[in-house]
Write a structure and sequence with these properties.
Blueprint: H1 6-16, E1 25-31, E2 37-43, H2 44-50, H3 64-74
Antiparallel strand pairs: 1-2
Length: 82
């Protein structure tokens, strides 16, 4: 996997695609082994930078609060402030 300067990448994506709500979660649903459906929240910035495999969903945040912690830790600046 290539090394990505995520702050620079985030700035470039915000400039290139200003209508995308980059700091809002992307709801992802997956089918569980027991036949149910699991729902989680993917980070649009990380998905754009690193891609996403079906097996990634197990490590995605399940709640908005968990997603907000991810943003604070991995993407601490607002796109417009970067």
């Amino acid at each position: 996997m290539p090394v990505v300067d995520i702050a620079v990448f985030e700035q470039e994506m915000a400039r290139s695609y200003p209508d995308v709500p980059w700091r809002e979660p992307l709801r992802v649903s997956t089918h569980c082994d027991d036949g149910g459906v699991d729902s989680c929240l993917a980070c649009r910035i990380c998905v754009a930078a690193y891609g996403m495999k079906g097996t990634d969903a197990v490590r995605f945040p399940k709640t908005k609060e968990e997603f907000d912690v991810h943003l604070a830790e991995k993407h601490p600046k607002e796109v417009s402030d970067a």
